[in-house]
Amino acid sequence: MKKLIVSAIILTSVAVFAAELPLPSVPRSLRSPSERAAYIMLHFWDEMNWSDQALIADDSFMEQNSANFYSLFGLTDSISASEAVAAMLRGAAVNDSAYRRVADIASLYLHQPESPMIDDESYAVVIDRLLEDRRLSEADLLRLDDSHRSIMKNRKGAKAADFDIITREASTISLSDAVAAMPQTLLIFYDPDCHDCAELESSLQQNCPPSTGIVMVYPSCDEPQQWESHAATMPENWTIGRVADDSFEESELYYIPATPTVYLISSDMTVLSKNLTAGKISWTQVKSEKSKG
After folding, report:
1. What is the distance, to the nearest Å, from the Cα of residue 211 to the centroid of all Cα atoms in its chain?
2. pLDDT digit string (tens) for 90-130?
3. Backbone dihedral region of 266: left (phi > 0), alpha (psi from -120 to 50 degrees) or beta?
4. What are 172's strand-pairing partners?
5. pTM for the predicted model, two decimal places
6. E strand or H helix at 215, and its extent?
7. How far apart are CA 43 and CA 12, in angstroms?
8. Terminal-to-terminal C-alpha distance of the chain
9. How many other CB atoms sit within 10 Å of the CB of residue 278?
């Protein structure tokens, strides 16, 4: 679907699909892909009948169109995305159920660890607008504010928070020391008794570029024997460790909604990417991040 939308931006083609809103016709004066993406985003919901309760309750329709809408965010800037979200919310504000539906779907698609579209930066744009509107309940707004604080931790482009790691060799090193030797490193918070983590480990062994380091951290002090047994089976060239004590969790240095939670970090501790959860790591993306450095 994203390929379809990108083609529409470039070719100004307008297509109508079953259970999907028609893409707006882009003025010919807008020539760059980012300008065209911004225009489509701003007018994406123009044909939506926000008063149609049956349409609002249609999971297939609402989720497909929301997925199409949010897939455009990566094609333009955050200001354009914010304006487009504001336009969507203005339309949805005709009734409370429509507004609530939009807010729930944004959380489902952009913030839940299981979502293939998880994107904290995009969700932060939505949260900012929802908090500005103040239309949701106080309880909802408090939850959004809490989510926003979590998103702001170790965000893309920021310096990753440093902490100490106890390695499987029983030595203590800092994260900054662990990542310093490689141009970029995948920092993975994992659990030894986690099926998705095991799948990710297998994929790493087969696909990870040799120029990318691996630091796997068990963010708990529970079940030390299980962790030690599992750590011994991991590749020797990986850094395998656990947090030094319970203060790591208490400090909430990192937002870890599920395991595995994966960050791509440069040698100077800059966060290059985040939320690269199991099965969602793009090795092309990992390689391209290296080429930018």
Report:
1. 24
2. 999 999 999 999 999 999 999 998 888 999 999 999 999 99
3. beta
4. 166
5. 0.81
6. strand 212-218
7. 14
8. 30
9. 23
